[in-house]
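CORE FACILITY INTAKE
Project code: CF-77B
Contact: R.S. (postdoc)
Sample description: multi-component assembly, two entities in total
Requested service: structural model of the whole complex
Turnaround: standard
Below are the sequence entries exactly as provided by the requester. Do not edit them.
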Amino acid sequence: MLLNIRNLHVSIEGKEIVKGLDLSVNNGEVHAIMGPNGTGKSTLAMAIAGKGDYTITQGEIIYKGKNINNMPPEDRAREGIFLGFQYPVEIPGVSIINFMRTAINEHREYKGLPPISALDFMEKMEEKKKLVEIQSKLTNRSVNEGFSGGEKKKNEIFQMAMLEPTLSILDETDSGLDIDALRVVANGVNKLRTKENAFVIITHYQRLLEYIVPDFVHVLYDGRIVKSGGKRLAFELEEKGYDWIKNEQTK
Amino acid sequence: MNKQNKYIALKNKLTTLFEENKNSIFKNEPQYISNLRNQAIEKFNQLGFPTTKMEGWRNTDLSKALSKNYNHFISSSRDNVNIEELFKCEIHNFDTDIVSFLNGFYVNGDSKLRQMPDGSVIGSLAKAIEQYPEIFEKYYNKNIQSDKNAFVALNTAFAQDGLFIYVPDGVEVKKAIQMVNIINHDKNLFVQNRNLIILSKNSKLTLVQCDDSINQQSSFNNSVTEIFVEENANLDHYKLQNLNNDSTLINSTFVHQKSGSNASTNSITLNGGLIRNNTFVKLSGQMCGANVYGVYLMDKTQHIDNHVFIDHAEPNCSSNELFKGILDENATGVFNGHVLVRRDAQKTRAFQSNKNILLTDTASIDTQPFLEIYADDVKCGHGATVGQLDNEAMFYLRSRGITEANARLLLMYAFAAEVINKISIKPLRDRIDDMVKKRLRGELSICDKCVLHCGSPEKEIHFDIKI
């Protein structure tokens, strides 16, 4: 099992958001996590990636057989976890090229490999840029600075392609995207799918799942997974709306 | 001895030094210069060294620096130093004409004043008084307000040497001029150099002014630079400061711009015990552009103070101030940007910005952007920020596998880069870029691989400094 989350409780500034969540992900699987706003989807993503102010008060996150509750975020990344941000951060003054080269070399150093050569790096960049259909000049710019919503999300997928993670968590990567950008993002994910790596796709709408077909769909409500099923569950949700879940829960 | 008495002790020591050495200070110089000296020492005597009770010095305490014992030389003490070795400088792909100063005195050997093929004159100020008396008299001390400034008065009284540059009408000096000012002595030194830079009409000059120290000895450098930028002339000026932690530098630069001229100064402060940069820009013609930029990276108990005064005396000029700094450990800083827009200076555009990152709770910055506007049709703005490294950006970088330490470095570098990117000469920009990265990594020592790549002087010098 690649990821095994057991009875996870996560608090932010003393307020509990995730309240006893269980989730198992195997290599090669695509999981979709859906649910109304404010139910803990992004909190779950941040907790897996290791953001400091997200405190795990109970339970554990087991990744590749290891408890990573206290692992620093950079080590999680170098162990193969990638988080595609809902709101990618703008970093003026740091070019995407420099950013990615630093990141790749840190990954290599962690694995005991020498730094990537300039030539290999440029080749890799070109290859991955084609994969996610991003414009060449974009990578010369500062990270996300002045990017449109679509460009930011494509840039997340580009970084994912560059870092070749084992477990990718995409947090509402589809939000704010027009249909073309959505297609590009979905194509990127589909091309990167292998038997080895897994995806957890957090989304509010079923729309993205028409392009990325999930193996499992989970519904998150009030900090817990309250319903799991196959891809049909997504259509059911779309049809009946989240009130269906809410009503079921309050019964 | 209390603070006040120490101030007076050094003040008395300097005035006595002046009185006792008048013969050698006044030696072979025109009467008007001696007169200026006499007036200036009197002024200095009246004013005394500034204390923290004075506006403008409230947050810069000189008492420690002024209470040390210094030696002050009236003439060059070491003419026989091997210049070639001391000032062997290379910035890759950056070809400069180097003018070297050791402990405040010109050291380029025989040719103290060089006339370049393009007609420009570069060299020792002391020599220029003899060889170009008319130019000298026309400009020297003409753009100085020494009646309020004790340091400028003191400099005028004592200064014996410094850099002299004269660029004739229409001449574009192709190679940048690099002034290398090194302080290296086995005793504490009080150094006062005086620089006079003249850009005639339609001329162009790039000047890089480097202040470096080689050993760990205390020094006090009171430097004054007068710059005249005549009609439609263009100046690109850089100040690189990389001094030891026991050095004090008071750097006063007076820029006088005529119509249609452009002048850009950029102070890059990498290290130094106490550094005060006073930059005065007077825009006394229409359609002038002035840029005053600075970046400072301080730690330990270092102190940086940037005081800028821009005087918009005429309409249709623009000025831009951008200062950015990172302060670590117990470092302290001051920014005071004062823009004066006089009543006739309509259509002025003036902007000032000071941004700071404090890495610890004990580092501090006192920032004061200040606009004083008497004209009614102007566009002016100012802003100041003080903050920490952005937590969201830190997490974003770390979530990609970048260690916390490297993420900090990347963000600090990115912060400083906004000013570095304004350096228009690419090889110089790359070199300074390197230095800033090294400084942030804590690898920069004061001489080893400084901007200049200076070769080591003859005698062995140890670099085991506490950086």
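Facility notes:
- Chain A touches chain B at residues 49-52, 72-74, 76-78, 82-83, 85, 88-89, 91-94, 98-99, 102-103, 106-107, 110, 142-143, 159, 163 (CB under 8 Å).
- The helical segments of chain A are 41-49, 73-78, 96-110, 118-131, 149-163, 179-192, 232-240, 243-250.
Invoice: internal transfer
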